[in-house]
Amino acid sequence: MNLGINNKIALVTGGATGIGLAICKDLANEGVKVIFTSRNRKSLRSSEKVLKRINPKCYGIVCDVTKKISRTKFLKRLKKNDSPDIVVNNVGDTLGILDPYCSVNDWMKLFNLILGTAIEINNFLIPHMSKKKWGRIVNIAAGASYENSGPVPYCTFKAAFSAYSRSMARVLATEKNNVVMSAVLPGLVLTERGHWSKVLKTKPQHAKKYLKERTTLQRFGTPEEISPMVVLLCSDKASFCVGTAIPVEGGQARHFFQKVNDF
Fold this sequence. Notes:
This protein is an alpha/beta fold and about 260 residues long. It has a single domain, classed as Rossmann fold (3-Layer(aba) Sandwich). The chain contains eight helices and seven strands; from the N terminus they run βαβαβαβαβαβαααβ. It has helices at about 20-30, 40-55, 70-80, 105-130, 150-175, 195-200, 205-215, 225-235, and strands at about 10, 35-40, 60, 85-90, 135-140, 180-185, 245-250. The chain has a seven-stranded parallel sheet, sandwiched between helices. Helix 4 packs parallel to helix 5 (about 150-175). The longest helix is centred in the middle third of the chain and has 29 residues, at about 105-130. The mean pLDDT is about 90.
């Protein structure tokens, strides 16, 4: 299938590892010039070498997109050198904030990471997309958007991210500039530096129990099982996917279960 994005420019935040890197690879294979961010210089350089072998135009930028100064400097560089047609807002984490009674300051840290950063990047780049009459924005939310499957603050902001994706997509559609926003909601995905890789090392029995009781396939997903759906939504074929929010979770959601014993 020709996705119609050869020679487009994409920005992927948090693209040096895990789901982000898989997305970068798949976009590069479609002829897209991928710009990706990472806080970790070593990871960035390693992944940059991999991507350049696919498409020599790809490159990474060391940037902590959650920090205002770093983000502003990064966006100015983009404005000067490249204007992305595609944005994948992939950065997200719990930041180790697990307490439902955590401080408002902790809540704001997560808001900034999961939602605030994406909103600022989108607001900066949407005018450029509108001017070119073409743009795709894919927000990486989570299965936790719809269900209680993680810490309260994390689930809350992932749910807000999904709601933002759907409501903002409608605004963009009414502007009739062919800028389409959508979202992908990954389930339990094992990445080299993610939460579950740590759990497997420290609490393997907990991981085994969770997979058995909370997933249909009783296994983790892989980044390569998430990225194709993201790339499709980044493509010219996604013109009708206004506000589409697609779970890619291997049947983890409880509404897939034939019988659920909650008590």
